[in-house]
Design a protein that fits this description.
Length: 147
């Protein structure tokens, strides 16, 4: 008979099953998570709520229609090229475009459905015509217009 006392072994914690379970949970979370897709953003532009200026400098109003047609000071242009737009902006600015401080403000009034490229063309034409002061026309939000 063996009456010797057995030495009790310290209990071991087996970490391998624990790590396996954590990896399964991690894989499940990675597969079930939905990521936002920027191509699905629904945005509505433009609206702004700002105070109007008391004194207005000289202005050139450039309108951009939804189909990409341009009008400068409510006079429609015959084409859609940047060169034609640059020449029309230079004519509308007159001699004031020679000095940047006295140059008129180009106000881009684009339809909310106008192509982004059409607005970029107006910005490029204003740069080529030495008209550095550029702003965008917006409308008041529906709730602010009712006030």
């Amino acid at each position: 008979m063996n009456f010797r006392r057995r030495q009790s072994e310290a209990p071991e914690i087996n970490l391998i099953p624990f790590i396996d379970v954590l990896l399964v949970v991690l894989i499940f979370l990675m597969l079930s998570t939905t990521y936002s897709r920027y191509s699905e953003l629904q945005i509505t532009l433009p609206t702004a709520d700002a105070d109007k200026l008391a004194e207005r400098p000289a202005e050139i109003l450039v309108s951009v229609a939804a189909d990409g047609r341009y009008a400068i000071n409510r006079v429609p242009l015959d084409g859609r090229s940047i060169e034609l737009l640059t020449a029309a902006l230079t004519r509308a600015a007159g001699p004031a475009a020679a000095t940047p401080a006295a140059s008129p403000v180009v106000i881009v009034s684009a339809d909310a459905l106008a192509a982004h490229q059409s607005v970029v063309n107006v910005m490029d034409a204003a740069r080529r015509a030495n008209l550095p002061r550029l702003t965008f026309a917006t409308q008041l939000p529906a709730d602010a217009a009712a006030r």
